[in-house]
Amino acid sequence: MGLFEMTVPRTICAGFLMLIAVGSVLLWLPLATASGQWNDPIVALFTATSAVCVTGLIVVDTGSYYSPLGQFIILLLIQVGGLGYMTATTLLLLVLKRRLRLKERLAVQQSMDTPELSGTRTLIVSIISMTLIIELTGAFCLMPTMMRDHGSGFGLWSSLFHSISAFNNAGFSLFEDSLVQYARSTWVTVVITGLVILGGIGYQVIMEAFFWCRDRLLRRRKYDGFSLNFKIVIVSSITLLALGTFAFLVMEYNNPATLGYFTWSDKLAAAWFQSVIARTAGFNSIDINGMHDASLFVMIALMFIGASPGSTGGGIKTTTVSILFICTRTVLRGYDEVLAFRREIPAVRIFKALSVVLGSGLAVIGVTIALAIFNPEFNFIRLLFEAVSAFATVGLSTGITAELTLPSQLVIIGSMYVGRVGVLLFMAALVGDHSPSMVKYPEEDLLVG
């Protein structure tokens, strides 16, 4: 295979690079800034990368630094980045009534992490339709509150902006304090967290739940039951959300910098909000910098795990962590088969889960070391927080992003990019495709643990 041959992983990686390049140029223009002056190229690159990679880390305030056109460009980058480059490209091909080639179907399959090639056209149309419906519904739900607080014009725009940003797990906000002003608003908390959860559980899970509800309402008997992916995603998501809420509520209960002065109901809502948001969304309703180190470490763990496969979120994914836990349980019980919900998990999925965790862990370690070298003045836990937030495309920060040195910001840019395309896909793009070997070697045991 040639060094510059465009394999499927290279096509996907190049597509994201192209989006980032175009977004950087657009945000660099004077029309994109509120001051009407040329933007700083590094600021434009950082913002475009954060938007395309649906991260949410910023070095300038989005609402005041960028003009309405600049904000629209950011929102467009978030939408395309959330859907995925190949999904957006495939949609364009369908609009132009072009037939999808095998390579394009393979690219969609890898970018969406779907096991099958069949039904690509139907899948893309369903994803686009579902995305528009959910985002518009979220915007309508936010409108009464946003328009009441910020006027009809800006309230309407901010409702749409935050709805799209939340569903795509981007975390960009038009408010300088993110959503701190709505920390005690139950309605905004419910709407934003609902959008984040829907965007984070994956398209396949949402569609499976939709078909189940449809068949039950129409009293059809075609449905055979939920898939293993659906069960693991739902169970792991509920478990992580519950544990995160409990941890934040207990550790920050009396912290005057976060939940200390809240009522009991507001404390519970804020703890729930941060537990949801830590799963790659990037908003915050309390001061992250004021949280205890123990809470920051819990948030780092939740960020590293991230959302679910086929979603708009990042991280190593809930199914990856679930597979590792199931493998551990299998070893402790002395079983030979890795079983979950009376189904055997294929060995190839176990290998992939181990590779994702190892690759992601090494990437975070490398980014953290680089940040520590370039910014020795910052606390280590905050540098680790920033590294995981960037790689897992979360967007939460303790407030040090804008203060990082130029080399550190470039490291963060690279981390966001690798985290968005996926560490395995990025490595496959670098290494290239390999022909399967027909040689089978003898097996030999070794000591482990």
Please give a handful of descriptors for the protein shown.
mainly alpha; 18 helices; 63% helix; 449 residues; two-stranded antiparallel sheet; single chain
Overall shape: globular
Q: Work out the count of structural domains.
A: 1
Strand segment tally: 2
Q: Going across the major beta sheet, what is the strand order?
A: 1-2
The SSE string, one letter per element, is HHHHHHHHHHHHHHEEHHHH
Main beta-sheet annotation? 2 strands, antiparallel
Mean pLDDT: 87
Q: Report the C-alpha radius of gyration, rounded.
A: 22 Å
Strand content: under 5%
How helical, in percent, are the residues?
A: 55-70%
Molecular structure report:
There is one protein chain. The protein has about 450 residues and is mostly helical. The protein has one domain. It is about 65% helix and about 0% strand. It contains 18 helices and two strands. The protein has helices at about 10-30, 40-50, 60-65, 70-85, 85-95, 100-110, 120-150, 150-165, 185-200, 205-215, 230-250, 265-275, 295-305, 320-335, 345-375, 380-390, 405-420, 425-430, and strands at about 340, 345. A two-stranded antiparallel ribbon has the order 1-2. A hairpin with a 2-residue loop joins strand 1 (about 340) and strand 2 (about 345). The chain is globular and about 70 Å long. The relative contact order is 0.11.
